[in-house]
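Lab notebook, bench 4. Still working through the backlog of constructs that have no structural model yet. Next entry is a single chain of 282 residues. Request: give me the structure tokens for it.
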Amino acid sequence: MPAVEQYLNQYLPDDEIERAARSRRAAKAVTYGQYNLNELLEQLNQIVKSSNHWQPTKVQGYCLKPVDMTAYKRSRVKAVKSKTYDSDARRALPGVPFGLMATTGKVAGQRVAILEMITCGEIGQNQPAQEMEKVYKKVASLLTSEDIAILDAGFSLIEAMIYGMVQFVIRLAKNCTFGRKPGEIPPRTASKGPDPSRHQAEIVRPLARQHGQRTLAKTEADESFTFTNQAGQEIHVEVWHPVYLLERQLDRLGETPQAQRLKKKLRKVPLKVVVIHHPDYE
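Model written out:
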């Protein structure tokens, strides 16, 4: 309502009665009306572009496309079967799930994300994996060669690759591991038993971690950089490139003929892992 009032005040600064009437009509249209989200987003982007105030942010020639999965919580609506985790309640609550993608830019120096995709989830079932799959596929279909998607830790690297995403940055777990080279089937070493069938590769471990009583050392970075940010803090960056998926990461694809063909393709996809050491974060 404040946004509608502010918008109308530009055109009807002296007619308070008409502004109030239009605001009420707008609220009723949103509450009780039916509309197409894709059409609304298309018109929104046309309005933004025609104003010539908003400029998309580009990094190394790529437009930044943040992607997220969230939900409207509806704890008291019994018809809602889908659920979403609530950090305050520390449990999953009924909610309407939906996926979002936007383009990051600036207006007069202020960072603004313009929404350009919404995928609505099914409220009659609680299938979070299916909802995530819809988001992956929709984002993959919308990304161009000049776009790069930005995914948080709630998304999966292997699933994003399975469903066709190519150019994206994703936050990984601290204990992530990869292969130094594409996995190869080891040679036969015994005269009995079946031939080796699982691909193996030298492990790349970006961060050291504790495994029981034993400390697993980190792999030396291929490149490292140190720079000072605007606050005078020293930031250290380490890079491993190229690295590849391990066989255990590809196991979730299954053993069907289609899965085997996809495994063969994904084994050879080069990845880049970046670790950022910042004094404000653990």
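Notes after review: The chain has a mean pLDDT of 91. Helices lie at 2-9, 16-32, 37-51, 128-142, 157-162, 247-250, 257-266. Flag for follow-up if needed.
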